[in-house]
Automatic annotation (TrEMBL):
Similarity remark: Belongs to the peptidase S33 family.
Keyword Coiled coil: no
Molecular function via GO: hydrolase activity
Name of protein: Peptidase S33 tripeptidyl aminopeptidase-like C-terminal domain-containing protein
Residue ranges, compositional bias (Low complexity): 572-590
Transmembrane segments: 610-632
Source species taxonomy: Eukaryota, Sar, Stramenopiles, Oomycota, Peronosporomycetes
Record region (Disordered): 572-592
Length: 684
């Protein structure tokens, strides 16, 4: 765990590695039946027992992918939950087999970079067939002849085995976020008796091959099935909901009257995209082209990445943030105007934001193998369809449209879509098909029946505007779950992760309170308290001068001018007199300096945010401690009064006994040592 977080919350973390079977029965067969794999576990141990549940409890925290939820964010969320539960519950997490501190799957490309870096790269990732083949052979040489050992089902079996072997007397609650919900759903189908509840926050539907059930219709199965290759379309659907909300909100649509279709935010966005791609030499197009790896060739499209693609992805990153999404209409307006007063503001924001985007953690190789084996549609959509899903959306993450080639090379798929995809600067996949691949078959196994296990409950949490885990999957999953012991709570217009984002007006985390109550009541949906969800602070799209200054560097969001100084004749300043691009040599150094200042400001803002969370949590702990102390003193006073009445009733003259009781009470409240207390009481 991050040492700063552990120290701030004064918690002790225990880490260990356990050896678990490489292959579980029914999943795969290893060449060596005794082959094992190391899985890294982490625990925050309970300090005291919880009197509410009456039993010792444990929570398993299954995080999202590392490019969505960093390790530091996982540590902070675990610490906050531990504090919310007043240190009464063991909290466990793990690095999935094949990742992190567990036995990791790792391969390098021929240029020395991580193989998966090109898979998950935006726009310019270029993957090589020889690198994929070399990686597949490398894993074979390590003894991983059947990569089904690294499936979602295998990860679930790891948790099941640890629970069965070491937590037989515990009540276990599973909490999972985003990608972690895929593992949690597999785990719940194992019906471990110790698991009494499961909270799926931002649930993704089961992989398409795993939702089959005799009691489910084909439409229900398709609705509940999550397919990564359709993520661009899913993102666009959520984005449409956001744009509609923004258009209806007066503070968000202040520059977009909506009186005619041409004044709508959505229409204006597509007009901006057409302008950017229609004139790639324009000043605003250059801002986006310069930041996109200097116009590297996109292997998926055999062309320079269009500036509209980059802007869509920038908007998508903003949509994932409850703070930045309010500035989407601002960027839309400024890119549409693209005047001299906009160029420096846009250049600095684009560079700073996309640097953060490109600097995010790259998912492990495991996630690429799992995605292409279990989460990609079969038969695959072709390149045109994948690209259209992205470009038909006003705002979309657009990562999957570049991954068709990776999918084809990892799986050895010989469908027409893959044959066409591999003709551009790549050999046929025939060699890959004849040898090892970086994938596994999963359709024939792990077919589950969405039945809620006996003695357990399932609580789904979803946010209405979560583009990472679109809420339609949680809704479809809830409908497909067979049984009545289930509940679904929705945070309207919220972002990813209800537990970490649903807040009350006083700054308290409502989502975390709901989770803690669910844990305290052992998953009893009739007893847990979720009333605060009705009081969750409605998200605001209003932007202030302070937030604008932090995000854009100016106080006026729509018309503020960022003056970078007049040292260079070609710099773009308040007057906007220069016609040179923002990235020209004459202004480059000033822009770089300004970028550094903005980056430092953003870094400071993140540190202050973390500090405020930690300080606020510490103050909350002190407040709780003070309340407990006051309650205890009040209880002691009432106890004394009761005993006085009792003694008076038993004996008419009880002055000596009362004096003794008062003395003992005063001594118990004094800071004197135990020895002194004993001698004083003895003298009395």
């Amino acid at each position: 765990m991050d040492s700063a977080i552990a120290n701030a919350f004064n918690i002790t973390v225990q880490c260990t590695k356990v050896e678990l079977p490489l292959c579980y029965e029914g999943i795969c067969n290893a060449e060596n039946d005794t082959a094992t794999i190391a899985v890294s576990l982490k625990r925050i141990p309970a300090l005291i027992a919880d009197s509410t549940s009456g039993k010792v409890q444990a929570i398993w925290y299954l995080p999202d992918r590392p490019d969505v939820q960093t390790r530091e964010e996982v540590d902070l969320e675990m610490a906050l939950l531990y504090q919310e539960l007043m240190n009464t519950v063991d909290i466990y997490t793990l690095d999935l087999r094949g990742t992190g501190n567990s036995t990791a799957l790792s391969c390098n490309a021929s240029d020395g970079s991580l193989l998966q870096a090109n898979v998950f790269a935006r726009n310019n990732g270029d993957i090589n067939l020889r690198d994929v083949q070399a990686c597949a052979q490398h894993l074979q040489d390590l003894g991983y002849t059947n990569l089904r050992a690294f499936s979602l089902a295998s990860a679930a079996r790891d948790i099941e085995k640890v629970v069965a072997d070491t937590q037989t007397d515990l009540q276990v609650i599973i909490y999972a976020l985003g990608y972690g919900t895929l593992v949690a759903q597999q785990l719940m189908q194992r019906e471990a008796s110790q698991i009494v509840g499961c909270v799926l926050d931002g649930a993704l539907g089961m992989p398409a091959g795993d939702t089959g059930s005799a009691s489910l219709s084909l439409s229900e199965v398709e609705a509940a099935a999550y397919e990564l290759s359709k993520s661009a379309k899913d993102f666009g659907e959520v984005a449409n909901g956001f744009i509609a909300w923004c258009q209806a909100d007066t503070s968000c649509s202040t520059m977009f009257s909506g009186a005619t279709p041409t004044t709508m935010i959505n229409t204006t966005l597509f007009e901006v995209y057409d302008r950017l791609d229609g004139d790639a030499t324009s000043m605003c197009a250059a801002i986006l082209s310069d930041v996109d790896a200097s116009g590297s060739i996109n292997s998926a499209t055999a062309s320079v990445t269009p500036p509209s693609f980059v802007l869509r992805q920038l908007m998508a990153q903003m949509m994932e943030s409850s703070t930045l999404r309010a500035f989407i209409p601002v960027l839309t307006y400024r890119f549409h105007r693209c005047g001299s007063e906009d160029l420096v503001v846009l250049s600095n924001f684009v560079n700073t934001t996309l640097k953060t985007l490109h600097g995010s953690d790259t998912p492990d190789l495991l996630y690429a193998i799992q995605a292409f084996s279990e989460l990609w549609e079969r038969p695959t959509a072709n390149q045109t369809e994948l690209t259209n899903r992205f470009t038909d959306s006003a705002i979309s993450d657009g990562r999957e449209y570049t991954q068709l080639l990776s999918y084809c090379l990892f799986t050895g798929d010989s469908s027409p879509a893959c044959v066409n995809a591999t003709t551009f600067e790549h050999a046929s996949t025939a060699t890959s098909r004849n040898g090892a691949t970086l994938s596994y078959e999963h359709d024939a196994i792990d077919v589950t029946t969405n039945v809620i296990p006996s003695g357990a409950s399932i609580l789904l949490l979803s946010s209405g505007l979560d583009p990472i885990s679109p809420p339609k999957y949680a809704a479809a999953l809830f409908d497909s779950l067979q049984g009545v012991n289930k509940a679904h709570l929705v945070a309207p217009n919220g972002t990813h992760g209800v537990v970490q984002s649903a807040m009350l007006s006083n700054g308290t985390g409502c989502g975390r309170q709901v989770l803690a109550s669910y844990v305290r009541h052992s998953g009893n949906l009739s007893a847990y308290d979720a009333t605060c969800m009705d009081e969750v602070l409605p998200p605001s799209l209003a932007i202030t001068n302070i937030s604008t200054l932090l995000v854009l560097g100016v106080s006026d969001a729509y018309d503020g001018v960022l003056d970078i100084g007049s040292e260079s004749d070609g710099s773009i300043g308040a007057s906007g007199s220069s016609n040179s691009p923002a990235g020209s040599p004459s202004s480059g150094s000033s822009i770089d300096d300004l970028n550094k200042q903005i980056s430092a400001l953003e870094s400071s803002r993140r540190r202050y945010k973390m500090a405020l969370i930690i300080v606020g949590s510490a103050l909350a702990a002190l407040l709780v401690g003070g309340v407990v102390l006051l309650f205890w003193r009040h209880h002691r006073k009432k106890q004394l009064e009761y005993e006085e009445v009792l003694l008076r009733h038993m004996r008419g003259d009880a002055d000596n006994e009362l004096e003794l009781m008062h003395s003992i009470y005063l001594l118990s409240s004094s800071p004197s040592s135990n020895g002194e207390r004993g001698r004083d009481a003895s003298r009395q």
